[in-house]
Amino acid sequence: MRIPCPYCGVRGVDEFSYLGDATLVRPDASVPNAEAAFADYVYLRDNPAGRHRELWQHAVGCQSWLVVTRDTRTHAIEQVEAARDIAAARASGAE
């Protein structure tokens, strides 16, 4: 698999480290069921077949964190975005 880094260009997957699901949102620790919510957040993961957003780091390149949208059945990459841009959009309420 080859991943198109927005900063370095297309690179082999061996230059990247996979973190996991990029759609997860950390639970609010102040809610009454916070312990159960954190247990689900840490231990329960889906294993989707199809389109999925994943968090990767270009570990051997520019060190950037990226959100890669790919089809888990074919490994076809649809989109690659800088994770910091997504986090900024989420913080401003644009996402």
UniProtKB/TrEMBL annotation:
Gene Ontology molecular function, alphabetical: sarcosine oxidase activity
Keyword list, A-Z: Oxidoreductase
Enzyme Commission number(s) of this protein: 1.5.3.1
InterPro entries per UniProt: SoxD, SoxD_sf
Pfam short name (any one): SoxD
One GO term (biological process): tetrahydrofolate metabolic process
Record protein name field: Sarcosine oxidase subunit delta
Native source organism of the sequence: Methylopila capsulata
Top-level taxonomy: Bacteria, Pseudomonadati, Pseudomonadota, Alphaproteobacteria, Hyphomicrobiales
